[in-house]
Amino acid sequence: MKALITGASSGIGRDMARYLAKLGIDLILVARRKERLLEIKKEVPVSVEIITMDLQVEQNVFKLYEKVKDKNIDILINNAGFGLFGMFNKTSLERELEMIDLNIKTYHILTKLFLIDFMKKDSGYILNVCSSAGFLVGPRLNTYYATKNYITKLTMGIYEELKHQKSHVHISALCPGPVSTEFNKVAKGTFSIKEMPSEKVAKYGIDKMFKTKLIIVPGFFVRLGLFLNRFVPWKVSMAISYQIQKRKTPNIE
After folding, report:
1. Is residue 37 a part of any domain in this protein?
2. Among residues 152, 110, 103, 159, which one has the least CA distance to residue 131?
3. Catalytic pick among 144, 150, 159, 204
4. Coil, strand, or helix at residue 9?
5. Cα dihedral sign, 10-96-156-124
6. Is residue 84 one of the residues assigned to a domain?
7. pTM of the entire predicted model
8. Using DSSP, how many helices (H) and how many strands (E) does the chain show?
9. 224 contact partners, CB below 8 Å, separation of at least 6
């Protein structure tokens, strides 16, 4: 088998690459930082192809697909993305548009193109790395939450379509809570609850993907929180979320 992973240079993407390699799955790793990808290539015992590319640029996403479409890929893992803390009227519009390009458009394009290919051969796995944010409203982290809502719901809708078409292609959404990655540094904030190790999230996500689970939520307390949130009025949920985000960013208004 062969897997394509975007955002593979660090965090969940890097650890998914390591875990898949342990399972004997060859890799195509995509990220901007070539030196990080080379480090992974040196340490894993499988064939690794490295592609250095900025997927915030739409044309690059199509170039990536054209480059790999004939390489017999069995698994697509959409993982590249970032967040940005702050009040919506004060955060950078330019940075938010870049986030939408990467967190939504890149996922959407690759999911659609590979889904079509996978359906032609009636096999394959797509794992979209989303977030527990995909089921919530996120004041002070608004655009990030909105992008993850988009991808989570898109994945769920595709899953239902595949079921009705009796397809053997499987799609899943990995929706972790806080994870120990470089997210905080890029988003300029800190989590107020304990973060899960990215290695644990990566392994859990891959294992559940192979079991064809739709929504994959690592961590009992994250699953419990999402379950209980179903019974909370939206305005109460938003107020709680605001206070949680505020504790992450005490110096940002």
Report:
1. yes
2. 152
3. 144
4. coil
5. negative
6. yes
7. 0.87
8. 10, 9
9. none
Domain count of the chain? 1
Any domain includes 142: yes
159 is catalytic: no
Give, for all 253 residues of the chain, the pLDDT tens digit.
999 999 999 999 999 999 999 999 999 999 999 999 999 999 999 999 999 999 999 999 999 999 999 999 999 999 999 999 999 999 999 999 999 999 999 999 999 999 999 999 999 999 999 988 888 888 889 999 999 999 999 999 999 999 999 999 999 999 998 876 555 454 444 544 567 899 999 999 999 999 999 999 998 888 788 888 788 787 887 787 777 777 776 565 5
Q: Where does the chain have alpha helices with state H?
A: 11-22, 34-43, 58-68, 93-100, 107-121, 142-164, 183-187, 198-210, 220-229, 234-248
Angle among Cα 217, 219, 221 to the nearest 5 degrees reads 105
